[in-house]
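[step 3/7] fold_predict: job queued, chain A
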Amino acid sequence: MFNRSRFIQHLIVLQDPGISPNSHGLPGLPALRQLVGALLTFSLVICVAAFVISAVAWAMGSFNSNAHYAGKGKTGCLVAAGAAILIGSANGLIRFFSSINLN
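[step 4/7] structure written:
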């Protein structure tokens, strides 16, 4: 007789290679962490600059009755804000999804 839950348990066990993250495996890991932290900072600064530029384009497009520039400015503001949200929450998102246990 076919037991579906037992099959899924065996399938999950077969898919697990038994490898866990090792923080002492590579010699340059602290430097890489500093590099990624600096990259996060630079990315957020770029998002702020993009938001300000897009807001200026939106304002100038609205002031000059240019719907194309106003629309592109709105889109730029939304993209910059969305990117900042994703960049700012990247560490928490990765931590959340890496701790999911399928057993």
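[step 5/7] annotate
Residues 26 and 32 are 10 Å apart (CA to CA).
The radius of gyration is 23 Å.
exit 0
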